[in-house]
């Protein structure tokens, strides 16, 4: 029997097989963030001060919602690792500076957080 006979053929098939669990809280290191599933917009954001992650679901497909979740979680991980910096020439943009060792640590943190969204 072919072990790969029933495997998904591409990333889109994999993403649609994985269902999003709409959790209400997530703990990043020692901080607990509230998660707001926001049907009034289609973007993501987070507030470190409020300990809040906002995931826009208004017009987004499941694939786009996954991207927003991954994006916001990765930015929080970068802040926790002290590798995200404000750009001096652009108030709405950031610089990320890290080496491969830090990248490994960040991916470990990111994957352990993302798996909490998978049902």
Describe the structure.
By secondary structure, the chain is of the alpha+beta class. The chain has one domain (20-117). It is built from three helices and six strands, in the order H-E-E-E-E-H-E-E-H. It has helices spanning 11-17, 62-80, 100-114, and strands spanning 25-28, 31-38, 44-47, 52-56, 84-87, 90-96. Strand 1 and strand 2 (31-38) form a beta hairpin. Helix 2 (62-80) packs across helix 3 (100-114).
Essential attributes:
6 strands; single chain; two-stranded antiparallel ribbon; 4-stranded mixed sheet; 3 helices; 119 residues; 34% helix; 27% strand; alpha+beta
Percent of residues in beta strands: 25-35%
Q: Mean pLDDT across all residues, rounded?
A: 88
Q: What count of domains describes the coordinates?
A: 1
Distance between the termini: 28 Å
Question: Strand count, sense and closure of the main sheet?
Answer: 4 strands, mixed
Computed over alpha carbons, the radius of gyration is 16 Å
Treating each run of at least 4 consecutive H or I residues as one helix, how many helices?
A: 3
**What share of the residues lie within helices?**
25-40%
Which blocks of ≥5 consecutive residues have pLDDT under 50? none
Topology overview:
Elements (H helix, E strand, L loop, with lengths): L10 H7 L7 E4 L2 E8 L5 E4 L4 E5 L5 H19 L3 E4 L2 E7 L3 H15 L5
Parallel strand pairs: 2-4
Antiparallel strand pairs: 1-2, 3-4, 5-6
Helix pairs in contact: 2-3
Brief overview:
The protein has 119 residues and is an alpha+beta fold. 34% of the residues lie in helices and 27% in strands.
